Task: inverse folding
């Protein structure tokens, strides 16, 4: 009886700790949402309090000032094309590296893993020079190519670990039935990679959608390709910071990505865990 009571108390303590931890992580969302409905004066006086009068006009002003539909469209297009390319290329690359473990392929996989430890800041100046020489700056193709290059390493690593757990006998049976090598991968193997594929989609979408540094280097002053993070910086000048409008823009920008995460979050732990223990 005492043991059961001790177990209940322990579980209750864990639940209380989990709730407090969840509230800690949700606190930034509270500050963003609440302060996006205030005037600048109210934010400066007390950022934690509820607004005296809800200023929904902040959202309509941001919508017009930063051309939010254009920025949203650019963010969606760049993110969708980049993520689709990363998933396609990295999954096929990882499949080849696993199924053909030659010395060259092992060295190539080692190169992918090694590139993950190189800080972006150490190569960004060279990146600007190379993209300028190749005339990729200020262009949709340029930003997508850069995201493909920087996003492949981690994605290949995740797919590589997961593919090791796919039974080779399934592929051999498909080959005996007359399936081509590409047919084996897309019809047999890739559907089995759904958990890790969704994980790769979520991780890269979160990164690309919220990224600021790479777009500011590649897109620059091209207003037709401005993404949401670049557009929101308009509210931060040298002498003034329009927190009320900036937070409204931030709330609008995170809404799509939060909805995507809530819909697909169960695959993150499933995919990463499966990929880490297989093989």
Result:
């Amino acid at each position: 009886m005492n043991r059961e009571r001790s177990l209940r108390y322990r579980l209750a303590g864990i639940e209380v700790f989990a709730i407090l931890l969840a509230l800690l992580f949700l606190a930034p969302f509270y500050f963003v949402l609440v302060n996006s409905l205030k005037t600048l004066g109210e934010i400066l006086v007390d950022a934690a309090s509820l607004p005296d009068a809800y200023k929904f006009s902040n959202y309509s002003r941001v919508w017009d000032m930063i051309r939010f539909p254009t920025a949203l469209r650019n963010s969606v297009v760049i993110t969708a094309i980049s993520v689709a390319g990363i998933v396609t290329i990295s999954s096929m690359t990882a499949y080849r590296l696993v199924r053909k473990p030659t010395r060259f392929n092992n060295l190539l996989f080692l190169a992918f893993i090694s590139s993950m430890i190189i800080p972006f800041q150490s190569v960004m100046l060279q990146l600007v020079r190379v993209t300028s020489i190749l005339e990729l700056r200020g262009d949709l193709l340029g930003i997508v190519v850069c995201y493909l290059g920087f996003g492949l390493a981690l994605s290949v690593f995740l797919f590589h670990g997961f593919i090791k757990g796919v039974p080779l006998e399934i592929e051999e049976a498909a080959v005996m039935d007359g399936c081509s090598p590409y047919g084996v991968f897309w019809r047999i193997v890739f559907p089995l990679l759904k958990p890790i594929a969704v994980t790769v989609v979520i991780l890269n979408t979160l990164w690309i959608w919220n990224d600021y540094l790479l777009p500011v280097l590649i897109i620059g002053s091209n207003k037709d390709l401005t993404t949401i993070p670049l557009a929101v910086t308009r509210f931060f000048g040298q002498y003034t910071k329009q927190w009320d409008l900036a937070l409204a823009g931030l709330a609008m920008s995170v809404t799509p990505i939060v909805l995507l995460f809530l819909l697909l979050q169960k695959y993150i732990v499933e995919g990463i865990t499966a990929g880490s223990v297989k093989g």
Notes: Residues 275-279 have pLDDT under 50 and may be disordered. The two ends are 44 Å apart (CA to CA).
